[in-house]
C-alpha cells in the first residue's frame, strides 16, 4: 500500500483512517471504561494504533528530511516520544490529588488530543519525493524538494533532487519486494540480523518495563505514595534531555555506529554492577517494602538514569 499510493496517502489511509480512528476509539474506551475488561480492551486497541504510527512516521521523516538534518529529524521522533512520557508522568502525578474517578479518567482521556491533532494535521503533509520518483512523477518530486528546502535554497534543492533521482532510478532496476530477499544471501541475512537485533535488544534492556512499572519498582525500594510518582516524573525527564543534546550536538557529527557501541558497552557495565548489587543485597519478598537497602536504592537511581540517557 505504501509503494502503491505513496507515503502521504499511505499515512492518510493507514494512520488517518485506520490508525487515528483506532487510537481515538481505544482512548475513548479507556476514558469511559466502566469495568476492568473495557479498560484492558481499550489499551489493546490503542496499542495497535501505536504500532501503525511507529512503523510509518520514522520512514516518512527519513524520506522528506534534507541530508544535513536527517539524523536530527529522525532522532526527533524519539525526542517526541520522550516528551510524551514526561507529559504522561507529570499528568499522572498531578491527577493523584483529584479525589474522584476523574483522577484516572483524565489522563486516559487526554490521549484523544494528540490523536485528533494528527488526524487533522496529516492532511497538510506533502508527498514523499522518493515515491514520486519511483512512479515516474519526476516534476512533482522536484516541486516537493524545492518546497521542503524553501525559498533561497534552489542550488541545494537541485543538488539533492539530482542525487535522489540517480539513486532512486538505480534502485528501481534491482529492487525486489519479496520478503525472502531479507535472507537470500549471507550479506542480506547479516544486514537483517543487525537491523532487527538492534531494535529487539534495545527493548530487551527493559526500558519500557521501567516506563510503565516504575512507581511499583520505586515502592519496593521504600519510595512510597506520591513520592514514587514524583521520582518517576523526574526519571522520565532524564532521557529526553539527554536525547536532545545527543541529536543536536553529536549524532550528525560522529555518525551512528560509535554511539551504538558506547551505549551497548555502558549497558554491559551497568547491568554487571546491577547483578552484583542484587546478589549482595537480595530484594525483599513480594508485597514487602525495604526502606533500609540503601545500596540498592542508590544504584537504582543511577541505573534508571543511565538507562534513560
From TrEMBL:
Identify its membrane topology class: Multi-pass membrane protein
Where's the Major facilitator superfamily (MFS) profile domain?
1-309
The reaction(s) annotated as catalysed by this protein in its Swiss-Prot or TrEMBL entry are: myo-inositol(out) + H(+)(out) = myo-inositol(in) + H(+)(in)
Looking up SUPFAM superfamilies in the UniProt record yields: MFS general substrate transporter
Q: Which Gene3D superfamilies match?
A: MFS general substrate transporter like domains
Instruction: Report the coiled-coil segments.
Output: none
Top-level taxon in the UniProt lineage:
Eukaryota
Q: Where does it localize?
A: Membrane
InterPro entries this protein is in? MFS_dom, MFS_sugar_transport-like, MFS_Sugar_Transporters, MFS_trans_sf, Sugar/inositol_transpt, Sugar_transporter_CS
> PANTHER family annotated for this entry?
PLASTIDIC GLUCOSE TRANSPORTER 4, SUGAR TRANSPORTER, PUTATIVE (AFU_ORTHOLOGUE AFUA_3G12170)-RELATED
Q: What is this protein called?
A: Major facilitator superfamily (MFS) profile domain-containing protein
Amino acid at each position: 500500500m505504501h509503494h502503491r499510493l505513496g507515503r502521504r496517502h499511505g499515512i492518510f489511509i493507514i494512520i488517518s483512517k485506520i490508525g487515528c480512528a483506532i487510537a481515538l476509539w481505544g482512548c475513548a474506551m479507556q476514558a469511559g471504561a466502566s469495568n476492568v475488561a473495557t479498560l484492558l480492551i481499550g489499551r489493546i486497541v490503542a496499542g495497535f494504533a501505536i504500532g501503525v504510527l511507529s512503523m510509518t512516521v520514522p520512514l516518512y521523516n527519513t524520506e522528506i528530511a534534507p541530508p544535513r538534518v536527517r539524523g536530527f529529524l529522525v532522532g526527533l521522533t524519539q525526542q517526541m516520544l520522550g516528551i510524551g512520557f514526561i507529559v504522561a508522568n507529570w499528568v499522572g502525578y498531578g491527577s493523584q490529588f483529584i479525589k474522584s474517578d476523574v483522577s484516572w479518567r483524565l489522563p486516559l482521556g487526554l490521549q484523544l488530543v494528540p490523536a485528533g491533532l494528527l488526524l487533522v494535521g496529516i492532511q497538510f503533509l506533502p508527498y514523499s519525493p522518493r515515491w514520486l520518483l519511483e512512479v515516474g512523477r519526476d516534476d512533482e518530486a522536484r516541486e516537493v524538494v524545492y518546497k521542503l528546502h524553501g525559498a533561497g535554497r534552489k542550488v541545494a534543492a537541485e543538488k539533492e533532487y539530482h542525487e535522489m533521482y540517480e539513486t532512486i532510478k538505480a534502485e528501481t532496476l534491482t529492487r525486489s519486494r519479496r520478503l525472502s530477499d531479507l535472507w537470500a544471501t549471507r550479506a542480506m541475512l547479516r544486514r537483517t540480523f543487525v537491523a532487527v537485533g538492534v531494535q529487539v535488544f534495545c527493548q530487551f534492556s527493559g526500558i519500557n518495563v521501567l516506563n510503565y512499572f516504575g512507581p511499583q519498582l520505586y515502592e519496593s525500594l521504600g519510595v512510597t505514595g506520591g513520592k514514587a510518582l514524583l521520582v518517576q516524573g523526574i526519571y522520565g525527564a532524564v532521557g529526553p534531555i539527554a536525547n536532545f543534546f545527543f541529536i543536536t550536538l553529536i549524532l550528525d557529527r560522529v555518525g551512528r555506529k560509535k554511539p551504538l557501541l558506547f551505549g551497548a558497552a555502558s549497558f554491559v557495565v551497568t547491568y554487571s554492577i546491577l547483578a552484583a548489587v542484587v546478589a549482595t543485597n537480595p530484594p525483599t519478598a513480594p508485597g514487602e517494602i525495604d526502606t533500609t537497602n540503601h545500596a540498592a536504592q542508590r544504584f537504582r537511581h543511577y541505573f534508571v538514569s543511565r538507562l534513560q540517557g
